[in-house]
Amino acid sequence: MAAIARETEAIVLDCFEHGESDVILTLLSRDTGKLSVIAKGAKRSKKRFVNKLELFSFIHISYQTSPNRSLSFLSEAELYTCFLNLRRNFELYTTASILREFLLIAIREGEADDRLFRLSLWALHNIDRNVQPLAILTLFLINFYEIIGYRPDFTICNSCNRQTTINRRYSFDTTTGGLICPDCSHPGQRLIRISQGTIKMLRSAQFQPLERLHRLKISGNILQESLSLLHDYGRQLFQREIISWKLLQKQLPFKHDKREYR
Ligand SMILES: [Zn+2]
């Protein structure tokens, strides 16, 4: 069957060398979700692809695809931005690597999602600007879960369905992605304590349009609780470790494992 020529915008999520001269890339593309392409001769060609296929680069690509092939052929790439700051700063790089790992776990071929694409670009731009990068990661993750269909619910107790009120202490149940009120919690459950400030912040982050999301400032205890919760929820949801989180833990301004279970 004849190859079809296509073009799209994409973010480079993974790249590795293949054979003597080729490079294989995994992309988050705007038009088809996860996309795997091979850049023939990319290691040798100095002009065609140089500096365009690095991790995190935001590019415009032309490629050839066939219905019976899982790997498409990259014809051309044009660089919009390579997020240079992010690549030169280890802390920012680590933060972006977590975003990258979550995307690689969740995205599927042929499942385009413009909201996820825009959210990812938004997060990379803001991490690159180095303005509250850990808060940007928090805001990315809370919206990421919503887009992939696993929005944590902070409005009711997940067990008795009563609306949350501001004068009670709640815990978060990572297995269900919801809150548990004091009446419904019992020994043996692995619940994370969550403060009213964190509940309020995460709720408002879920309903902010992307254009206003960066206005939410998150720091101190709320940042610590949010990151712990979003990390644990991801591990539970995907049933695996988030490998890049280990690097982040070493550079957090607080001890990550101080979270309270009950
Ligand atoms: Zn309850």
Report on this model:
With 262 residues, the protein is an alpha+beta fold. It folds into 2 domains: 4-82, Nucleic acid-binding proteins (OB fold (Dihydrolipoamide Acetyltransferase, E2P), Beta Barrel), CATH 2.40.50.140; 86-258, de novo design (two linked rop proteins), CATH 1.20.1440.120. It is built from 8 helices and 9 strands. The chain has helices at residues 84-88, 90-106, 114-128, 133-147, 196-206, 210-213, 220-238, 245-251, and strands at residues 4-18, 22-29, 33-39, 58-65, 72-81, 153-157, 170-173, 178-180, 191-194. Strands 1-2-3-5-4 form a 5-stranded mixed beta barrel. It has a 4-stranded mixed sheet with strand order 6-8-7-9, with helices on one face. Strand 1 and strand 2 (22-29) form a beta hairpin. The mean pLDDT is 91. Zinc ion binds next to loops.
- As laid out across the biggest beta sheet, the strand order is 1-2-3-5-4
User: Strand fraction band?
Assistant: 15-25%
| Quaternary assembly | single chain
| Number of domains as seen in the coordinates | 2
Biggest β-sheet strands, sense, barrel: 5 strands, mixed, barrel
Task: Give the CA-CA distance, first to last residue.
Answer: 59 Å
List keywords for this structure.
elongated; alpha+beta; binds zinc ion; 2 domains; de novo design (two linked rop proteins)
Summarize the model shown.
With 262 residues, this protein is of the alpha+beta class.
List the helices and strands and how they pair.
Blueprint: E1 4-18, E2 22-29, E3 33-39, E4 58-65, E5 72-81, H1 84-88, H2 90-106, H3 114-128, H4 133-147, E6 153-157, E7 170-173, E8 178-180, E9 191-194, H5 196-206, H6 210-213, H7 220-238, H8 245-251
Helix pairs in contact: 2-3, 2-4, 2-8, 3-4, 4-7, 5-7
Bound molecules: zinc ion (ZN).
